[in-house]
Amino acid sequence: MVDWHTRTDVDSTVTRISEPHVNELLSANFWWLRGTDRDIVIDAGLGVVALREAIPGLFARDPLVVLTHAHLDHVGAAAEFGHRAAHPAEAGLLAEGVPASLYGGELFAKLGIDPAGEAVPELMIDALPDPGYDPATYRIEPMTVHRLLNDGDRVDLGGRALTVLHLPGHTPGSIALLEERTGTLYSGDIVYEGALIDDLPNSDVAAYRRSMRFLVDLDVAVVHPGHGDSFDGTRLRQLAEAYLRRTDGSADEKS
After folding, report:
1. Whose C-alpha in 8, 17, 156, 202 is 20 to 30 A from the C-alpha of 32?
2. Model's pTM, two decimal places?
3. For the segment 143-156, what is each residue's pLDDT rounded down to a tens digit?
């Protein structure tokens, strides 16, 4: 058996969980936050290995899973949770069933990704979780969202609360969550170190630019992103400004 998940404690109440055997394109972070009244999990990884089996403590307090957007690397294990939350614009996609495959060519076709001459991985994982695992069985079943989250909504854990920020562009219903008390932003795929994806069929560069203009002025201490390592508020502004420079003149920013 392969140890599929890596867990890193940020502090006594926040844990980063990642999947090191997943291809870089899909190797996402998800975040386990503990409050005095309840826990939440922000995103749910690829779902190749059942979280209830791998990390049973994650479910001890019946957590709410908050999905930043409806892509397979963020919602793969979401159906394991009894309570799910997402933006209304993503709820319909989740109800239909998120396009998913562990085979690179099939996945790119389902997502409408143009590899632009780059080599496409045959398999999106570099190990099997167990010798008998068949990647062809991987799929994400349709799921219901129990709580719809709109811009400005609050998610209260007891002793801490997070504010929902609707920041479209990567997808129409992409959200981030801001804990104002600590200045911590959980950014999903809105921003991270690396090439930001804004050319999927439901991406919108103009909306992405508006979201980045918002982030340039957002006062945060640390960003915990959906991919890669965390960074500070100065780096957030640098990344947002770099995106705005790169896309300047490429999209109409009508509100």
Report:
1. 202
2. 0.95
3. 999 999 999 999 99
